[in-house]
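Renewal narrative, Specific Aim 1. Our central claim is that a sequence can be written position by position from structural information alone. The example that follows is taken directly from our test logs and has not been curated for this report. It begins with the structure tokens describing the chain, in the order in which they were read.
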């Protein structure tokens, strides 16, 4: 340690200059391990400097006003578009309702047409119950034409063995069959020009043969 008075070098442990007797320190040196000193220095450095007083600026105010205006505008647009959307939806609902009504009307008229047709069919059937022919059924195994009787036959007023007798047909007599009808239990009947029916064939016999 150099003396501040006489500039001479003193031993490290001396507190007073061994040459001139002046104190080597203003205050006796306090013993601090260097580590602690470092920590103190660090702590001092770590302490945050007091935050600088924020400058009073008008920018945040302007930003707030602009944001507020944007929000108000956004809300206004949302309301306007919401109203228009709901109006459009109402219009669409009305259109759908109209379409449904039209649909109902079309359906009703279709139903009416169908009923009318059914009525007409029923009426036609009532008028001639034996004229009914289902186009989807198997085609008749017999064609209209001239037939010859294999046996003495009975003419009836329907394609059924229980139908009323209307006349007869002798064996080998020929008869013109205008249409062929299916009777009960796999029997086929020919309708003559006079409107009578004669059995052409049943599971047991073939009564009429086609004329050559
Ligand atoms: Zn000295």
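The sequence written for that structure reads:
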């Amino acid at each position: 340690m150099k003396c501040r008075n006489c500039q001479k070098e003193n031993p490290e442990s001396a507190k007073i200059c061994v040459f001139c007797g002046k104190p080597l320190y203003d205050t006796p040196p306090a013993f601090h391990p260097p580590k602690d000193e470092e920590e103190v220095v660090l702590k001092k450095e770590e302490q945050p400097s007091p935050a600088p007083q924020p400058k009073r600026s008008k920018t945040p105010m302007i930003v707030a006003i602009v944001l507020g205006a944007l929000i108000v505008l956004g809300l206004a647009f949302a309301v306007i578009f919401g109203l228009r959307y709901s109006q459009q939806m109402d219009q669409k609902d009305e259109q759908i309702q109209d379409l449904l009504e039209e649909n109902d009307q079309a359906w009703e008229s279709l139903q009416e047409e169908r009923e009318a047709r059914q009525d007409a069919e029923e009426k036609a059937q009532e008028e001639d119950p034996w004229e009914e022919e289902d186009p989807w059924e198997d085609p008749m195994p017999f064609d209209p034409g001239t037939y010859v009787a294999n046996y003495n036959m009975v003419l009836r007023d329907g394609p059924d063995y229980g139908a009323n007798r209307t006349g007869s047909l002798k064996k080998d007599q020929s008869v013109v069959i205008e249409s062929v009808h299916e009777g009960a239990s796999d029997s086929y009947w020919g309708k003559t020009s006079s409107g009578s029916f004669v059995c052409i064939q049943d599971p047991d016999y073939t009564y009429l043969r086609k004329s050559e």
